[in-house]
Amino acid sequence: MTAIPAVRPTGAHRGRKAANRRSGRPEDAPRWERPALAAVLAVATALYSWGIGHAALHPFYGAAIRSMAGGWRAFFFGGLDTSGSISIDKLPGAFWPDAVSVWLFGPHTWAAALPQVVEGVLTVWLLHRIVRAWAGPFAALIAALTLTLTPITVVLNRATIPDTALTLLLVAAAGALQKAVRTERLLPLITCGIWVGLAFQAKMLQAWLVLPVFAAVYQIVAPGTPLKRALRFLLGGTVALAVSCFWVLIAWATPAADRPYLDGTSDNNPFALVFGYNGLSRFSSDSTAFGAVAGTATSRTTGNTGWNMLINHTVGPQVAWFLPLAVLAAVLGVVWRTGQPRTDMLRAGFLIWGGWLAIHTLVFSASNGNHAYYTAVIAPALAALTGGGLSLFRSEYESEQEAQHEAGGRRHMALPAAIVLTVAWALVLDWPTRFVSWLLPVAVMLALCGVAGLWTRGPRTSPRMVHGALAAGIAATLVVPAGWAVSSLNPLYAGAPTAPITGPVGSAYYGSVRQHHAPRRIGLDRPSARDTALLDYLTTHRHGEKYLLATQAAYAAEPLLRAKSEPILVMGGFTGSTPFPTARQLGSLVTAHQLRYALLTTQRPTTPVTTWVKSHCTRIRPAAYGRRTGGSFTLYDCNPQR
User: Fold this and answer.
1) 3-class SS letters over 28-95
2) By the 8 A CB rule, do 160 and 48 touch?
3) What sign has the CA pseudo-torsion 440, 443, 446, 449?
4) At 636, phi and psi to the nearest 5?
5) Which residue from 578, 598, 447, 566 is spatially nearest to 81, judged by alpha carbons?
6) pLDDT value at 255 more than 70
7) CA–CA dist 570, 607 (Å, integer)
8) Cα–Cα distance between 629 and 562 in angstroms, integer?
9) CB atoms < 10 A from the CB of 99, how many?
10) Nearest to 608 by CA among 633, 584, 637, 640
11) Is residue 363 over pLDDT 90?
């Protein structure tokens, strides 16, 4: 932990610095700031990029990324195969950087994962800038370090999942809002709307969760008359809506024949994709709400919901290490600023980040289910509140100590109490698994040293000793979550590529223990021997057909699409239940010699098109394409006369 620089013992100078921190004005750049920030960014880069050549490539998204790199139609509309016959079941915005990277550097796993690393490091850097402008360099450094070492942040930035881009763009939006409140300028508010709209392209409706918080904070804190504030935010909200909907409107206006069928929808409607399949169906008992295709056990998780979801056995160790401290900081940051002007920026920051944390917790608790990695979006709020809170507590501690504990002054107790609370909470989170139990004594010893040093400060105590005690206390709060975060570098403790989490929790970990090996990492351009044999067979027997083959659901197509950039007709989309193509359309493709082979699987439900294949096509012996048995897959030839 970088030591806090000594403060001159002159009382007037100390008073001015404490007043600056309490007013929310950033301090001048201290000499330690740039080297400390560079060190934090270096740690973030190392953690997020370690072993990037074997990154946790999501099977479905990885296939789409390679296909999107192969043509403009698949790129813009998020085509699952290069022909863009059917889209992925999300908006494609989060995968555009990945596809560009693969297009530039080739079909390598590291190329697909590189944008997530960049996005993760940028988020740390951007949060530092935002918190510095709000609460000063000390708070900014703590926030950046906390975010860097949050376990779910580390593991997610090593995967190919949209939440990384979502988090970066929403942090940028929060920074723009903060600037709009501070400067009373309109342009930052417009910029905030643009960032929220771009975040919508990454993960749709989840990007809008911050809008009520942003609206309330702007209306409460921003300068100007209430009407002016309301009109300005209405303009910013309009910009956010316009940028959010641009892809949806383009897809809606494009003739169906000129774009992919939109996966997850029963009517090929982009509004059903956004507001149904990825919206209402996740909160209601009707899984087909607003034109959505019913989800399956593969596409929908039912766990991690309810009021305690942030602190349960699985999610808690991913993100909640600083939750008590963040809540304490948000509450005291508002209460202690009572009596300050309405436009007080320090209070505004606690409102922004506290509201961000509260609204996401409420929505996650009310949904039908959440993957643990969804909570990565609240990590910046927890980190900002941690940094801002410790900075505020430090300010009050120093001011009351300098005043020699004026009668009734108790705020100086918040700083050591926050350290004790956070370390005690770390013991609670780690206790069920005792995963890093060897670090717990280290955390306790550092906390005792830090709290003892802060508590016994006297008139003759040197600033260097106080700062050393503070550094020990902060290190105590970080050491246990850092242990969980670093564990994700071991594939055994990184979860599944479809649901990355850290530590000895989750079904992927327990499955690995039973099978005595870590989950297999898939990659681009690295087909298995079985998939290579199938691809060779299909290529050899292809005679000008448009599609290499048709597969039942994405599950069967994913390894082939990751291995080779070819048009593959994915029947039923991700779930296998999307009504594309119809049996008539499939028959027409076969008749027109655009399709010959179909690969069916017992792992997905029977549909009209699979029934058509079984009744019109001839089953091929597995030995013909290099397999002893077909396993769960069966290959059919729909033009056996050839």
Assistant:
1) CCCCCHHHHHHHHHHHHHHHHHCCHHHCECCHHHHHHHHHHCCCHHHHHHCECCCCCCEECCCCCHHH
2) no
3) negative
4) -120, 145
5) 566
6) yes
7) 13
8) 23
9) 24
10) 584
11) yes
Hey, which bits of 572-629 come out as E strands? Answer: 597-601, 618-619
pLDDT of residue 516: 78
Averaged confidence pLDDT in the chain: 91
- Which of 208, 213, 220, 212 has the alpha carbon at shortest distance from 169? 208
Residue 159 pairs in a beta bridge with 56
Going 175 to 179 to 182 to 187, the CA torsion angle's sign is negative
The Cα–Cα gap between 535 and 552 comes to 16
Q: Beta-carbon neighbour count of residue 604 at 10 Å?
A: 22
Report d(CA 605, CA 552) in Å as an integer: 9
Distances (CA, A) of 436 to 499, 506, 585: 22, 17, 56
Q: Distance (Å, rounded) from C-alpha 153 to C-alpha 64?
A: 23
Confidence of residue 96 (pLDDT cuts 50, 70, 90): very high
Please give the structure tokens belonging to residue 295. Answer: 């989800």
Residue 8: which of 355, 462, 401, 369 has the closest Cα?
462
For the chain, how far is it from start to end, CA to CA, in angstroms?
Answer: 71
pLDDT at 409: 66
- Number of helices (H), then strands (E), in the chain: 25, 7
**252: exposed, middle or buried (C-beta count within 10 Å: 0-12, 13-18, 19+)?**
middle
Matching residue, tokens 């690393």:
117
Cα–Cα distance measured from residue 582 to residue 608, given in angstroms and rounded to the nearest whole number: 7
User: Which of the four pLDDT bands, split at 50, 70 and 90, describes residue 537?
Assistant: very high
Q: Is 341 exposed, middle or buried (0-12, 13-18, 19+ CB in 10 A)?
A: exposed
What is the model's pLDDT at position 10? 38
- Are 57 and 522 contacting, i.e. CB atoms less than 8 angstroms apart? yes
CA distance 519 to 490: 11
Q: How many CB atoms lie within 10 A of CB 234?
A: 11
The rounded distance, in Å, linking the Cα atoms of 342 and 627 is: 72
What sign has the CA pseudo-torsion 412, 413, 419, 425?
negative
Contact yes or no for 120/153 (Cβ under 8 A): yes
Instruction: Tell me if residue 530 falls in helix, strand or coil.
Output: helix
157 within 8 A of 119, measured Cβ to Cβ: yes
